[in-house]
Amino acid sequence: VATNVVVGSGLTGNNSSISGANNTIFGHNTGYSLDTGNNNIAVGMTVLQNLSSGSNNVAIGYTALSGVVSTDFNTAVGYSAGLLTTGTRSVYLGAYAGAYDTAGSSFYVDSYARGSQALDRAGALLYGTFNATPASQTLTINAATTISSTTASTSSVTGALIVSGGAGVAGAICSGTYFLNSVGNALTAAGTTRTD
Question: Which is nearest to 94 in space by CA: 67, 64, 121, 74?
Fold first, then answer.
């Protein structure tokens, strides 16, 4: 026997009975198309509205994950977070976070409606991609970033920021009184050029 908690008007209105189990649905038209999906949590108006067979999704906030039909393992918290996603294994945090994302395996932290998937990625405070192989995961910080710490660096394995692997720098680096800037294939520091 399927055990589901369903509270609100217009809920699961497309199906007279849900064969999926362990779903918790609260809100007007939330889970409207739910049929065989399992272990979903939806709170708010029209949340997971098109979900039919997807499982293990969590959506909280007006229209969050409304585009999900049969995908699994998505989490969205915020007004219209993950609104149009059709992918799996994504996390959307904040109002409109990843609202236009359709790729799946995505991570967004945002609070603005951007207008397209490309603008979501370029404008979200944080945008990343999940992958089963950690080295293939990505994280983009779309902000000026400050790391506040009193931890001094005395070697390549101490300090407030430790980079394990290569580091690419598109601009200049300033460290105390030293300013490093790339000029062609050379590195210039306080007027002295080194190419070795």
Answer: 64
